[in-house]
């Protein structure tokens, strides 16, 4: 059980270094997403091995597994699943707390930085490896003054069983 | 009743100074600076006392300034390099000043100027104020966007200090 603070500080150092390197919030967001994607495509194997959940029957089940099993396993939090769209292809994960952002306060010159964008990439990459194409983005962020952090996930399509996508 | 809270870096420049009412700020800078000299003296006097965090208590220090402008001030100096000093500064003139200081192991100093003519804050209350300050300070340090040595611009720190300023006065 590694120290959560070390993890938080490591992620913080990563984000600030990216900010210094790219000097452009949008670019940093993209890089975080890419990095998350690369983590996700690998993490899914670990997840499936450790959690031994079977194939999900539908997107709702997927949402529950993500919230109750995956987030719990890797971040120690259990977000709630809400705001299902009428078609059942979009939902929100509401995170009361986000261990990545402990102690973090966004300075004013980084107002369009999506600090935890790595998480979006991870979810996208992991689901792609189980043949689901999704779009993931943050719709609310405590760092920007919202009360909660909300991740919006949208199901795009089921992918063909083909060779795994390469790294981005 | 005015209260001032200051955070001073180990190189002895201020990272954060807030005072109420605001126009006293310059005088508080001055006060804090003079108290730093006192602290340095006391620290060197103690020498290698590797005591625990709350040990040494020192007595009175007589002030050189005159704070007639303010109605009763109490400035208590409370320092802990590795230990705690209490320095009570009593103004020989009409008003009493109490300045509390606190020094962390990393030589960052906190100074609280308390103005309480009627209510003298108990030792424990001051200690808990410093503990809170220290905790908020470490949170500020952990913010990846904060560069050590910068002035402290954290909203969380500001709100904690505001809460203490209201409470202490």
Automatic annotation (TrEMBL), chain A:
Any single GO BP term: Golgi vesicle transport
SUPFAM superfamilies reported in the protein's UniProt record: Ligand-binding domain in the NO signalling and Golgi transport (SSF111126)
Function: May play a role in vesicular transport from endoplasmic reticulum to Golgi.
KW Endoplasmic reticulum (keyword) present: yes
Species of provenance: Oncorhynchus tshawytscha (Chinook salmon)
Localization in the cell: Endoplasmic reticulum; Golgi apparatus, cis-Golgi network
PANTHER family membership: TRAFFICKING PROTEIN PARTICLE COMPLEX SUBUNIT 3
InterPro entries: Bet3, NO_sig/Golgi_transp_ligand-bd, TRAPP_component
Name of protein: Trafficking protein particle complex subunit
Family the entry assigns: Belongs to the TRAPP small subunits family. BET3 subfamily.
Species lineage: Eukaryota, Metazoa, Chordata, Craniata, Vertebrata
Gene3D superfamilies named in the record: Trafficking protein particle complex subunit 3 (3.30.1380.20)
Pfam assignment, any one: TRAPP
Transmembrane helix recorded as keyword: no
Quaternary structure (record): Homodimer.
A Gene Ontology term for the protein's cellular component: Golgi apparatus
Keyword terms, alphabetized: Endoplasmic reticulum, ER-Golgi transport, Golgi apparatus, Lipoprotein, Palmitate, Transport
From TrEMBL, chain B:
Listed transmembrane segments: 70-89
InterPro entries: Longin-like_dom_sf, Sedlin, TRAPPC2L
Domain of life: Eukaryota
Gene3D superfamilies the record matches: 3.30.450.70
Annotated compartments: Cytoplasm, Perinuclear region
Swiss-Prot/TrEMBL keywords: ER-Golgi transport, Membrane, Transmembrane, Transmembrane helix, Transport
GO cellular component terms, semicolon-separated: perinuclear region of cytoplasm
SUPFAM superfamilies: SNARE-like (SSF64356)
A GO biological-process term: endoplasmic reticulum to Golgi vesicle-mediated transport
Name of one Pfam family that matches: Sedlin_N
Family under the similarity heading: Belongs to the TRAPP small subunits family. Sedlin subfamily.
Protein name: Trafficking protein particle complex subunit 2-like protein
Organism: Oncorhynchus tshawytscha
Gene: TRAPPC2L
């Amino acid at each position: 059980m590694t120290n959560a603070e070390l993890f938080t500080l490591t992620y913080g150092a990563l984000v600030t270094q990216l900010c210094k390197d790219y000097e452009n919030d949008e670019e940093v967001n993209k890089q975080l997403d890419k990095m998350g994607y690369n983590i996700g495509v690998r993490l899914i194997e670990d997840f499936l091995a450790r959690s031994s959940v079977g194939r999900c029957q539908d997107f709702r089940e997927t949402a529950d597994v993500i919230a109750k099993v995956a987030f719990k396993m890797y971040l120690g939090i259990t977000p709630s699943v809400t705001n299902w769209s009428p078609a059942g292809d979009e939902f929100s994960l509401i995170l009361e707390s986000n261990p990545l952002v402990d102690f973090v306060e966004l300075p004013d010159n980084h107002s369009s930085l999506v600090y935890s964008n790595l998480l979006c990439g991870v979810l996208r990459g992991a689901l792609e490896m189980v043949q689901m194409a999704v779009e993931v983005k943050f719709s609310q962020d405590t760092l920007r003054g919202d009360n909660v952090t909300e991740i919006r996930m949208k199901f795009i399509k089921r992918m063909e069983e083909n060779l795994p996508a390469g790294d981005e | 009743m005015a209260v001032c809270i200051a955070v001073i870096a180990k190189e002895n420049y201020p990272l954060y100074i807030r005072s109420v009412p605001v126009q006293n700020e310059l005088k508080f800078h001055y006060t804090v600076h003079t108290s730093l000299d006192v602290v340095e003296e006391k620290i060197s006097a103690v020498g290698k006392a590797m005591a625990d965090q709350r040990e040494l208590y020192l007595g009175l220090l007589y002030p050189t300034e005159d704070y007639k402008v303010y109605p009763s001030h109490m400035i208590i100096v409370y320092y802990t390099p590795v230990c705690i000093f209490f320095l009570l500064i009593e103004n020989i003139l009409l008003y009493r000043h109490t300045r509390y200081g606190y020094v962390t192991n990393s030589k960052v100093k906190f100074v609280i100027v308390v103005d309480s003519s009627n209510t003298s804050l108990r030792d424990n209350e001051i200690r808990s104020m410093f503990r809170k300050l220290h905790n908020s300070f470490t949170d500020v340090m952990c913010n990846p966007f904060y560069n050590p040595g910068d002035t402290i611009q954290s909203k969380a720190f500001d709100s904690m200090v505001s809460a203490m300023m209201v409470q202490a006065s």
